[in-house]
Amino acid sequence: MGLVFDHVVLLVRDLEKAAADFAALGFTILERADLNASHGSTIFRFASLKDGSYILLTAFTSDEAQSKHRLGPVLEAGEGHADWSFTVPSSAEMSEELKRAGFPVKGPVVVSNMVEGGHKWGLDLLMLGRGAGGDVALPFVVSDNEGRKHRIPGPSDHANGATAMVGIRLSSIDVEAVVKTLVALGGKDIGASPVNAGDRRVDFGQTWIDVAVDGVPSGRAGGGIVEVVLVSSDARLPAAGTVLDLGLAHGAPIRLVKG
To answer: Which domains are present in the chain?
Structure first.
């Protein structure tokens, strides 16, 4: 089994409005009851899926916080998808493997907190793309060391039928470098994407990544996430799926496909 998605970071300017908009799109939105403001610069809402992955609606707590954060420049360019992650057994081991292979990494760093009821959660976070000097399309990876069930509220039933994150389409100024890194993470380069003409696909078993050349429609200038694909139980969806309303999704393309 390959690595699996942990979450997608979706940057917004008004968190409460974004939560209401995503509820209108058919998502059940949850809040994590952290007791200590260890994150400081960011606040969150969760759309948690039954496969353990989630969309993390994220806003900065102030202009100063945004200016100091590695994702601050992304929001300056507009709301929408900003970063993404895999969950791995050990971020520390992954760091050493990637360093030996010559890939840029930063970390891992410990992120932790306590939720209401005294339950702790903690993870190790390793940056490969933004914040590490790597291609901005690349993910960060996390490994839970305590309380994953407390880190991720839910999972939830969603009115739009979303149950799992199955794929992410990226764009990059250096497709070969991104594919090479994803293969080093454990993916398999299978060549041409079967659904996105001109893209390269890296398969991780339960999940896939398609990598397009920078400049494709809906992509951020310079590269990053183009589209997130979720499986839905809604049998009425067309064969190619449907992209949710971009206005309500705050500029973040999310496609629902029949599962």
So the answer is: 4-151 (3.10.180.10), 162-258 (2.60.40.4320)
